[in-house]
Specification:
The protein is of the alpha+beta class and about 575 residues long. The chain has three domains: about 220 residues, Beta-lactamase, CATH 3.40.710; about 100 residues, Methane Monooxygenase Hydroxylase, Chain G, domain 1, CATH 1.20.58; about 90 residues. The chain is built from 13 helices and 30 strands. The strands form six sheets. The protein has an eight-stranded antiparallel beta barrel. The N terminus is likely disordered.
C-alpha cells in the first residue's frame, strides 16, 4: 500500500469503551467553531472543502469553504458535486451484495466464473477476496503503467479487466494477506455489468441512488458527460495551484461523483435500511478475519472499521489528482460527517475528527481523550545521530527498497530508492520516529552479531515490517554490459530493451520515457516506476531474465530474448 492509501485508510485509535448516545443540545456557537476548522481553506484564491453534518438523518450543518473553480471565481456551495475517489468502493460493494441477495451470484463464487478469459488457475480467487482486498491480485494500474501504451480503442475499464485476466502470478496466495487493491474493485464493477446486464452506473442509479434520493450522485463512466455544479480539482505546487487532471471513465474503485449532503443520505441508510436488508447492511459492517492478518481486519466491503476517542467510527476516504475526501459515521451516536475537497495531498481526517470533537463533546468516554489537535512531542537529535540512519534499506520479503536521507536538518523517508516521494519522520527518541498524524512507528535497530542495521516499521499492518541496510554497491561498466539485451513478459504483452548509456544501465520502455537504473545490490537495480529489478543468471553465470518488484506488483518476470 502506498503512502497516500495509508493515510486515507488511517483511523483514529482510541480507548475501547462503551458510549452513551449523544442527544445533547447543540449550542448556537457551534457552526462558527466548525468554520474555524476550515478557515485555512475559506478563501477566494484557494480550492477548499464541502462539509455536511447530520444526526439520525437530520441535517445539522452544511457549508462550503473555498472555490469550486478558481478561473471562473465560483465558490463551493452545498450544491457542489465532487469526485470522491475511493469512497466509491462501498457503493460498488453494495451493488455486489444486492446481486447476492437476489441470488445472481455468491460471495464465494470464483472470479473466473464471470471472467472466462482468466489465466490464473492455481488457486481460487473469489468475489469475497476482491471485496476485502485479500485477493493477491497484482495492481492493475501499475501493470498498465509499465506496459506498452494501448492503441486498441478498448475502454479503460475493459482494459483493466483484460490486464488482470492475463496475469499468471499473484502477489500472494488468496486470503493470505491484506493489500489495498484498486484494480480488484474496478473488476467488481465489471462483474456487476456482466451479471446484471447493466453498467455499474445504471445499476447503482436504479438500485441505490434513486431509492435514497441521491439526485446529485452518479458513477461517472463517461468522461465527456456534463455535470452541473462539478468542482474543478487542483494540485498545490511551489508556484501556487495548478489544474489536476485525473483519468476519466474509471469506475468501481473510484468514479463516484456526489455532494456532501447526498453522502449523508447514504450513511443514514445503515440505520433505516431502505436499500438492502438489515442483515446485508450488518454484514457489510462486520469485520472479518483474514488468513495471515492475525486479528479482525479493519477493512470490509468498502468500509474502514475503527474507533476515535473510544467511539466506534466507520468510514472511508478517497484521494487522487485534485481529490481529498472522507465520509465517516459514528453509529452509536447517529452522527455522520462528509468532508469533500477539490485539492490533493491534504489529509481530511483531522477535519473529520475536529468536527466530531465539537458535535460529540459530551459523548466521549471520560477515560478517553480526543486527538484532533494532538501534536507529537519532538525530540532534538544531533546531525550525527540523524545521519547515522541515512541509507538504502531492503525488505527481503518483498525485495522493495526505501531510502532514508537528511533534508533541511530533518530525517526524511522515501518509499523508493530516490528522494522524490518522501515525507518527514519526527523523532520520538534516539532510534524511534513516527509519521505525524499516523500510528506508524519507525525504529532503527543498530547492527550486531554480523547483522546489518535494520529498520522496523509498526502500525502499518498486523506484523512489523523489517528492512536491512544495504552496503553501497558501485558496479563497473563491464559488469553492466552483461545485462544488455531484450526481455519480454507475456503477462503485460510488452518487451523492454536494456542498454548501457555512458556509465548507467537504462531500460527502454516502448512508447514511454527511458528509465535509468540505480544499482542497489548484486544483480539488482532500482528505477522510477519500476522500483526493484532483480536479474537472474543460469548455472554458467549468463543473465537470462529479470523480475520486477513494486509495492503493487510482485514477481513480474521478463525472459531474455535469445538471438
Amino acid at each position: 500500500m502506498n503512502r497516500k492509501n495509508l493515510w486515507l485508510l488511517m483511523v483514529a485509535v482510541g480507548t475501547l469503551a462503551s458510549a452513551a448516545k449523544g442527544d445533547e443540545q447543540i449550542p448556537d456557537s457551534l457552526p462558527a467553531r466548525v468554520d474555524e476548522l476550515f478557515a485555512e481553506w475559506d478563501k477566494t484564491n484557494s480550492p477548499g472543502f464541502g462539509l455536511a453534518v447530520s444526526r439520525n438523518g437530520t441535517l445539522l450543518y452544511e457549508h462550503g469553504y473555498g472555490m469550486a473553480n478558481l478561473e471562473l471565481g465560483v465558490p463551493i456551495t452545498s450544491a457542489s458535486v465532487f469526485p470522491v475517489a475511493s469512497i466509491s468502493k462501498q457503493f460498488t460493494a453494495l451493488s455486489i451484495l444486492l446481486l447476492v441477495e437476489r441470488g445472481k451470484l455468491s460471495l464465494d463464487d470464483e472470479v473466473k466464473r464471470f471472467i472466462p478469459e482468466w489465466a490464473y488457475t492455481e488457486q481460487p480467487i473469489t468475489i469475497r477476496h476482491l471485496l476485502n482486498h485479500t485477493s493477491g491480485l497484482r495492481d492493475a494500474f501499475t501493470l498498465i503503467g509499465i506496459a506498452a501504451p494501448r492503441e486498441d480503442g478498448v475502454s479503460v475499464n475493459d482494459a483493466i479487466a483484460a490486464a488482470l485476466a492475463r496475469q499468471r502470478g499473484l502477489n500472494f496466495a488468496p486470503g493470505a494477506e491484506f493489500q489495498y487493491n484498486n484494480g480488484a474493485y474496478n473488476l467488481l464493477g465489471t462483474i456487476v455489468k456482466r451479471v446484471s446486464g447493466q453498467s455499474l452506473r445504471d445499476f447503482a442509479e436504479a438500485n441505490v441512488f434513486k431509492p435514497l434520493g441521491m439526485a446529485q450522485t452518479h458513477f461517472h463512466d463517461d468522461p465527456a458527460m456534463l455535470v452541473p455544479h462539478r468542482v474543478t480539482g487542483y494540485s498545490r505546487g511551489k508556484n501556487g495551484f495548478k489544474l489536476a487532471r485525473p483519468e476519466g471513465g474509471i469506475v468501481g474503485n473510484a468514479g463516484l461523483y456526489a455532494t456532501a449532503r447526498d453522502l449523508l443520505r447514504w450513511e443514514q441508510n445503515f440505520a433505516d435500511a431502505r436499500v438492502g436488508s438489515r442483515t446485508l447492511l450488518a454484514e457489510m459492517q462486520k469485520p472479518l478475519v483474514a488468513t495471515g492478518w492475525g486479528d479482525e481486519s479493519f477493512y470490509v466491503f468498502g468500509l474502514v472499521i475503527g474507533q476515535y476517542g473510544g467511539l466506534r467510527m466507520i468510514g472511508h476516504g478517497g484521494g487522487d489528482q485534485g481529490i481529498s475526501t472522507y465520509v465517516a459515521r459514528f453509529p452509536d451516536q447517529g452522527l455522520a460527517v462528509a468532508v469533500l475537497g477539490n485539492v490533493d495531498n491534504v489529509n481530511p481526517m483531522p477535519l473529520i475528527r475536529g468536527v466530531a470533537d465539537l458535535y460529540l463533546a459530551n459523548s466521549f468516554p471520560v477515560s478517553s481523550t480526543t486527538n484532533a489537535s494532538a501534536t507529537v512531542t519532538k525530540v532534538s537529535l544531533s546531525a550525527e545521530e540523524l545521519a547515522s540512519k541515512a541509507g538504502l534499506y531492503r525488505d527481503p520479503a518483498t525485495e522493495l527498497v526505501g531510502r532514508f536521507f537528511i533534508r533541511d536538518e530533518k530525517l526524511m523517508a522515501s518509499t523508493d530508492s530516490g528522494e522524490e516521494n518522501s515525507f518527514e519522520l519526527v523523532p520520538l527518541d534516539t532510534n524511534r520516529f513516527t509519521i505525524p498524524g499516523t500510528a506508524v512507528v519507525v525504529e532503527f535497530v543498530p547492527a550486531s552479531n554480523g547483522r546489518p542495521q535494520e529498520v522496523r516499521v509498526t502500525g502499518d499492518g498486523p506484523k512489523p515490517k523489517v528492512s536491512q541496510r544495504l552496503a553501497p554497491f558501485t558496479p563497473t561498466s563491464a559488469y553492466l554490459r552483461a545485462f544488455a539485451g531484450e526481455y519480454t513478459s507475456s503477462d503485460i504483452e510488452t518487451t523492454y530493451k536494456v542498454a548501457t548509456r555512458d556509465s548507467d544501465l537504462v531500460v527502454q520502455l516502448p512508447g514511454r520515457s527511458s528509465v535509468t537504473l540505480r544499482p542497489i545490490f548484486q544483480d539488482a537495480f532500482a528505477g522510477s516506476g519500476l522500483d526493484t529489478i532483480k536479474f537472474s543468471r543460469d548455472a554458467r553465470g549468463v543473465v537470462t531474465a529479470f523480475t520486477i518488484y513494486t509495492s503493487g506488483v510482485r514477481g513480474l518476470r521478463f525472459e531474455r530474448v535469445k538471438r
